[in-house]
């Protein structure tokens, strides 16, 4: 069956929920017919240069021959088997790669199917760990204001109660502690007073299981890039107060910030690490939660004797095979140099936006560029303006931001930054 562009959009408006959307006031939506490299081809024939990497996930561009082949070959061998009692090469090879690449000490990998679930898994690991240590009272989490960790219930409880979009569910969410996010910028001197809030929380409460944070870049909650010194100090505070550290690198993992993992900016290892999005190069839904031996030993020696989680699609061979190939592709290439070049270009070309009336800040780190506006613009006019400019940029609240696939060329990046400048200057 071949639907026309209008038919796709009409059916979409009738039946299909989009993220954070309303059927009564739908935001402008475009049907994509195909995607290749950094280009999305719409069903109406227009093409757009993609600045969003499908929300951080596409690394090597769309329709990559090596990733296509990995998926095709794996589908011919085995598309899925339930993991329990059975295992397979795509999963074990991937887990070996993850252990080798991730910050030191993270030796055990729990595979799941989405970023939010990997956060649930991380939280459950922390709770089971403290239970196993005879400290079941350590059952609450410290998260940062402006943090975002996903849309499931545990993950929602550690999102910023205001910017995290989940206040509607607050009655059903476990109450957590929130430390004020650091105000020291990534490349500015560190202000010690940034630590006051988290230091006080950790010193005052004995029921804290773990601190959970997005290292270096807070994503959906504000696109804020903070000082590595903060992260380093939080690691020390966690050790001092017998609290685990969970790093949510679902958005920052696999090079986006200029290091393979954002924790490397501070030279720290978390006790538990969440990965997702980019893990499969944006091809399949897959996430991973890694933990160190202390956590896994504790859990396995504890009352339950097992870790209590087991999603049906964990370790899906298609997803694992494409993830393995995506990581090989990344490591074989010159990703660090590419990200460095993209970073320099984003700095050069987004900086002029600072002079625009509506712009209050411009921030760049690695392959991420952010233009912060004074207030949220009207998406009904803004989104079509970006599409008219031939680029796919999806603003969120006051933030106009891009994180293009690493393979984006200089001219593709210029199209994105030039489009942002002209659209924002017309606001
Ligand atoms: N943590 C972070 C830092 C994220 O950016 C996201 C996704 N935006 C999630 C968790 C949730 O991941 P998913 O959408 O795959 O559930």
UniProtKB/TrEMBL annotation:
Site (Participates in the substrate recognition with KAPA and in a stacking interaction with the adenine ring of SAM) residue list: 20
Binding site for pyridoxal 5'-phosphate: 115-116, 248, 311-312
UniProt: substrate binding residues: 55, 148, 277, 310, 394
UniProt key word RNA-binding: no
Pathway noted in the entry: Cofactor biosynthesis; biotin biosynthesis; 7,8-diaminononanoate from 8-amino-7-oxononanoate (SAM route): step 1/1
UniProt entry keywords in alphabetical sequence: Aminotransferase, Biotin biosynthesis, Cytoplasm, Pyridoxal phosphate, S-adenosyl-L-methionine, Transferase
Protein name: Adenosylmethionine-8-amino-7-oxononanoate aminotransferase
Organism: Gilvimarinus algae
Name of the gene this protein is made from: bioA
């Amino acid at each position: 069956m071949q639907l026309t562009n209008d038919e796709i959009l009409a059916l979409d408006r009738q039946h299909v929920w989009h993220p954070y959307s309303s059927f009564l006031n739908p935001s402008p939506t475009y049907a994509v017919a195909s995607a290749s490299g950094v280009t999305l081809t719409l069903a109406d024939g227009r093409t757009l240069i993609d600045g969003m990497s499908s929300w951080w996930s596409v690394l090597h561009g769309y329709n990559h021959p090596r990733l296509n082949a990995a998926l095709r070959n794996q589908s011919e061998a085995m598309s899925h088997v339930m993991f329990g009692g059975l295992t397979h090469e795509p999963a074990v090879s991937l887990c070996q790669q993850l252990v080798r690449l991730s910050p030191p000490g993270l030796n055990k990998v729990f595979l799941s199917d989405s970023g939010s679930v990997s956060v649930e898994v991380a939280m459950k690991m922390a709770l089971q760990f403290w239970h196993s240590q005879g400290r079941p009272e350590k059952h609450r989490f410290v998260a940062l204001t402006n943090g975002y960790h996903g849309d499931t219930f545990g993950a929602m409880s550690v999102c910023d109660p205001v910017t995290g979009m989940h206040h509607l569910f607050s009655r059903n969410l476990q109450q957590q502690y929130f430390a004020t996010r650091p105000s020291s910028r990534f490349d500015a001197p560190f202000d010690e007073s940034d630590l006051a809030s988290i230091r006080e929380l950790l010193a005052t409460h004995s029921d804290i299981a773990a601190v959970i944070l997005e290292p270096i870049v807070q994503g959906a909650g504000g696109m804020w890039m903070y000082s590595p010194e903060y992260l380093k100090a939080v690691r020390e505070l966690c050790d001092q107060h017998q609290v685990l550290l969970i790093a949510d690198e679902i958005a920052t993992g696999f090079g986006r910030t200029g290091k393979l993992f954002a924790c490397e900016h501070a030279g720290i290892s978390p006790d538990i690490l969440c990965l997702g999005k980019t893990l499969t190069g944006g091809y399949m839904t897959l996430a991973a939660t890694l933990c160190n031996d202390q956590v896994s030993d504790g859990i396995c020696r504890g009352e339950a004797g097992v870790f209590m989680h087991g999603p049906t699609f964990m370790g899906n061979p298609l997803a694992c095979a494409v993830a393995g190939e995506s990581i090989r592709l990344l490591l074989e290439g010159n990703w660090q140099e590419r990200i460095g070049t993209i970073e320099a270009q984003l700095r050069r070309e987004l900086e002029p936006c600072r002079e625009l009336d509506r712009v209050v800040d411009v921030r760049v780190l690695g392959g991420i560029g952010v233009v912060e506006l004074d207030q949220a613009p009207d998406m009904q006019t803004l989104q079509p303006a970006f599409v008219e400019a031939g680029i796919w940029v999806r603003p969120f609240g006051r933030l106009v931001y891009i994180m293009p696939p690493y393979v984006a060329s200089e001219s593709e990046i210029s199209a994105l930054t030039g489009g942002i400048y002209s659209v924002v200057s017309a606001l």
